[in-house]
Amino acid sequence: MLGEWEFPDISLYLVAILGLLVLWQYYQIQIMTGRILAIDIFDRSGIRMYIYVTPDDDQICEVCSASNGRVFSPSQVAKKGFSPHGGKCKKPTPCLGVLVGLYGGWLEARGVLEQLRANLRKGGIQLSAEELRALVNGEWERCISAETDRLGIHMIEAICYEKINQAVSVAGYRYVVGEAREVRHLLLLVPAYLRLVPILVRAGESAEALELIERFEKRFPATRRGPHFPSDEQRDVMKARKTHLINSQPLKIPA
Predict the structure, then answer these.
(1) Contact between residue 119 and residue 125 where contact means Cβ atoms under 8 Å apart
(2) 64 is a domain residue
(3) What are the backbone dihedrals phi and psi of residue 224, each rounded to the nearest 5 degrees, phi first?
């Protein structure tokens, strides 16, 4: 017979699982409120390298553009005051760029990891645009890190192919917007929305672009703020695009 304060073995397991769930929820709340950096979670999620990627267009300043393709280790990114840039952004509103974390289990990614480890004392390495495309074109879907890296790969691919293959770029951004739910992916959401809308407009998909802006507004209410939420300037950009799209809609004449 069990003593007054004894629990069956199964109860101990359930209590332990409940404790882990509560702890994980606590960390998510801390990240959402900005009390701890998302990198604290990234370092425990199997990420072995970070790649900084910027779009290839005239809106990106020379400092941020020069940082495209830089590769960092988790320990570098976790350092206080870390910046992927070699200098200060030249724009009053910071240029759009993303730091994508990857496990990198496929052949091309393992090669990048080896280079990174060999050059850590020199500050890391930098991939060219061609090398970035070769990385995402590798057989990543057949390796053990496919699910871990899927969303990050689509984000890198979307940015790298904006000028080369618009269909690939649109598909990548759509995937990020539709599938980003984990804490470590939230910082990719706003850039994906901001890049996808003008591409859709240029492609003549104004209705989808307007719908996307409305989804953006629902996902990031104006009354809320957080590390992964858009800045006031980014919200203003989306408002201006929405106004332009609404005003450019053809008038509906009653029958």
Answers:
(1) yes
(2) yes
(3) -115, 150
Residue 115 structural domain? 31-183
The reply to whether 16 falls in a domain is no
Structure tokens at 83: 């910046």
Residue type (1 letter), 213: I
In order along the chain (255 residues), what is the average pLDDT of each group of 10 residues? 53 64 56 42 68 94 96 94 92 92 95 95 93 96 92 98 96 97 90 97 94 96 89 94 88 51
DSSP H stretches of helix in the chain:
9-32, 39-42, 62-65, 74-77, 107-118, 129-136, 146-160, 166-179, 189-202, 206-219, 232-247
Q: Which two tokens stand for residue 205?
A: 């998909």
Length of the chain: 255
Instruction: Confirm if 89 and 109 have CB atoms less than 8 A apart.
Output: no
Model confidence, pTM:
0.79
How far is CA 224 from each of CA 36, 104, 218, rounded to the nearest angstrom? Answer: 18, 34, 11
The greatest distance separating any two alpha carbons of the chain, rounded to the nearest whole angstrom, comes to 83
Q: Which helix (H) or strand (E) holds 52?
A: strand 49-53
- Dihedral over Cα of 191, 63, 72, 74: its sign: negative
Cα R_g (the chain), whole angstroms: 21
Element (H, E) at 126: strand 125-126
Q: What phi, psi does 24 have (nearest 5°)?
A: -65, -40
Phi, psi (rounded to 5 degrees) for 101: -90, 135
Query: Is residue 215 in some structural domain?
Result: no
